[in-house]
């Protein structure tokens, strides 16, 4: 019987067997390395991540008890006694005559935008007038403001901002100098933080 395609008397191909064993050795080593890595990873997963599936959500809060239902009675109320109420606040003793008390924004006052305020305004404060420049240059509480020879509190003006329907003027420290509302086309009326009436027009 002759060995599968070998010529009689030929020696077995030793080189091929050695190459095959070398390749098999590398393959066996690679397989062993992969198997060892898989076992290590499986062990890490079971010890580090094994508790993730068993975490349950927190229990729901206890139900809230309903408010007790009472009965409604019908009757006449007595007239209020003036002594039941606190004393009304007094006016500022340092305020000058003719000053206005703080008021709510007029119902007809429009919402403002920085573009509707930007420009140069004629300001009136305590019977004196000056000019205020309100460019849209970012600064302080909103935008830079430039008072031009303004009296009193307006002389400290450094910035301005729009807050809904309100135009607020600020000093260099961020303190409010005056709050105004639009009272018509190209006109604002309000008061300074000291309670003095102020208006802007153009």
Task: Characterise the protein shown here.
The protein is an alpha+beta fold and 202 residues long. The chain has a domain at 114-201: Lipocalin (Beta Barrel). The chain is 19% helix and 27% strand. It contains 2 helices and 10 strands, in the order ααββββββββββ. A hairpin with a 2-residue loop joins β1 (119-125) and β2.
Quick overview:
This protein is of the alpha+beta class and 202 residues long. Helix content is 19%, strand content 27%. One of its GO terms (molecular function) is endopeptidase inhibitor activity.
Protein topology:
Layout lengths: L13 H35 L65 H4 L1 E7 L2 E7 L3 E2 L2 E3 L1 E3 L8 E7 L2 E6 L4 E9 L2 E6 L4 E5 L1
Antiparallel strand pairs: 1-2, 1-10, 2-5, 3-4, 4-6, 6-7, 7-8, 8-9, 9-10
Q: Structural class given helices, strands, pairing?
A: alpha+beta
Please give the count of helices.
Answer: 2
Kindly identify the CATH topology of the domain at 114-201: Lipocalin
Shape: flat
CATH level-1 class of the domain at 114-201: Mainly Beta
Tell how many strands the DSSP assignment holds: 10
Distance between the termini: 121 Å
Rg (CA only): 44 Å
Strand order of the largest sheet: 3-4-6-7-8-9-10-1-2-5
The helix/strand order is HHEEEEEEEEEE
Please state the second-level CATH architecture of the domain at 114-201.
Beta Barrel
What is the mean pLDDT?
76
Strand content: 25-35%
**Fraction of residues in H or I helices:** 10-25%
């Amino acid at each position: 019987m002759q060995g599968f395609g070998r010529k009689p008397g030929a020696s077995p191909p030793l080189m091929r067997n050695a190459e095959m064993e070398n390749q098999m050795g590398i393959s066996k080593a690679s397989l062993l390395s992969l198997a060892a890595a898989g076992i290590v990873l499986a062990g890490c997963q079971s010890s580090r991540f094994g508790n993730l599936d068993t975490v349950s959500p927190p229990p729901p809060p206890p139900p809230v008890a309903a408010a007790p239902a009472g009965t409604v009675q019908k009757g006449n109320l007595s007239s209020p006694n003036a002594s039941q109420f606190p004393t009304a606040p007094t006016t500022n003793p340092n305020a000058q005559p003719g000053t206005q008390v703080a008021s709510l924004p007029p119902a007809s006052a429009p919402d403002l935008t920085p573009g509707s305020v930007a420009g140069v305004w004629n300001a009136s404060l305590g019977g004196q007038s000056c000019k205020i420049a309100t460019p849209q240059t970012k600064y302080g509480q909103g935008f830079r403001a430039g008072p031009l020879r303004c009296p009193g509190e307006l002389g400290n003006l450094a910035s301005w901002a729009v807050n809904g329907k309100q135009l607020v003027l600020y000093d260099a420290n961020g303190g409010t100098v005056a709050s105004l509302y639009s009272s018509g086309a190209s006109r604002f009326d309000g008061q300074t933080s000291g309670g003095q009436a102020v208006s802007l027009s153009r």
